[in-house]
Amino acid sequence: MSPPRQAIVVGAGISGLACALRLAETGIGVRVLEAAEQPGGMISTVERDGFLFESGPQSFQMTPDLQELIRAANFESELIEADPKTPRYVLLDGKLHPAPMSPPTLLSTSLLGMGSKVRVLSEAFRHSKPPAHDESFADFVRRKFGTEILEHLAGPFVSGVFAGDPEQLSLRSTFPTMAVWEEEYGSIIRGAMKSRGDGPRTRPTLAGFKRGMASFIGALARKLGTGVTNGIRIDSLESAGNVGWSIHCTGTRTPEVLPAGAIVIATPAYEAARLVNKFAKGLSATLSGIPYAPVAVVAQGYRREHVGHALNGFGFLVPRKEGLRTLGNVWNSSLFPGRAPAGMVAITSFIGGAMDPHVVDMDEEPIADQVRKEIGKVLQITGPPVARQVWRHPKALPQYNLGHAERVQAIQDELENCRGIFVTGNYLEGPSIGSCISQGFRAAKSVLEHLSR
Ligand SMILES: Cc1cc2nc3c(=O)[nH]c(=O)nc-3n(C[C@H](O)[C@H](O)[C@H](O)COP(=O)(O)OP(=O)(O)OC[C@H]3O[C@@H](n4cnc5c(N)ncnc54)[C@H](O)[C@@H]3O)c2cc1C
To answer: What is the C-alpha separation between 131 and 172, in angstroms, rounded?
Structure first.
């Protein structure tokens, strides 16, 4: 008897939903089992008093796979794009400075001294060889561009994306193209120029959805229809031979046997580790070796007249030497329409990360007060917030630390011994929404190949 042409996806975050939809499109029966009462995982949207606040991603960079998923969900009309020229700021010596977004602005930026500017621009004329070992992001930037670039620009940027420690993050795993450019061309600038070719220079599109990120999750779940079941936390899995999979859910005594030829585990790595522990101890140990950084998200609404700064941009990032706990923030109402009522502004700040992990142990009120105090000074805020929402994510983002590429390779190798088991999620090849979708699609392709064998 051949295994059923059905798949179970554990976890209805964006990775799991993308995988499930791709499988459903190709005629595979899919069930998505989600522990929470709502799908979306790290993505959720709260509408309150005319404000629209996001628990995790505030926007995303468009990719071909993301565009395809939006089309598949008939959601194109909900898409909104930010102005690609929107400036981003970096806090330095207590003041906001526009971050350089192009070579001419690099020359004029007040964030760098002349020595750093010359070093960056002359990089195209120098040749370097990457070290054989997995190099940290911080070591790479120091070696190629110097300490000032690391502290004022590159460090705050990676803290913003990964909530990570630049001394621990692996260059090869966080910015693989940079590692390739140095390997192939001996220069990052020459590599970037070659990869761009002769076409016009375009910035990647920064986008969102009119009614927030969760509206897209809702559209994906609707498209999958009754295939998504919320409120089921899977505790462990075991193969039931050709019949399907024996699934143990929290709160049930006996496992339920569900017909499926394949299981896609689309949970965070530490949960995946728990699910496979009964039958794949090595895989479980490797998965649980992926560290996560905590982040608290503080969304606040203010009266426009209480904010002295024009908020003419995306938001600002904070170098660690400024001594603030806030990592950075997004000026939501400047980026997209419909984020705040008339006469109000919405600002979302991020605090914590791998270098300040205890923030999430604090209560919501002191976290919000800390952020209000810190950003209040910078943005000249003179009145209290009129709306507020705090999320504490103790395990917000996987850390692509030194040795990450080897861990991912070990996961792939160990999966070879687990017939019918697949993993996907933001801990493998990139945490961005676009990357999660591409990984979900790749997992679906592997499931199809497996079921067609
Ligand atoms: C604060 C923050 C800001 C971010 N900002 C951006 C941004 O601006 N742009 C961007 O592109 N990306 C951003 N990201 C990254 C992006 O949001 C995430 O990487 C992505 O949403 C993760 O999706 P996922 O499906 O891989 O995992 P998750 O969203 O974690 O989904 C996993 C799902 O599995 C479920 N689950 C877990 N265990 C079980 C179990 N045992 N049984 C059943 N279900 C289970 C969970 O409940 C969850 O729904 C941000 C992330 C955070 C935390």
So the answer is: 11
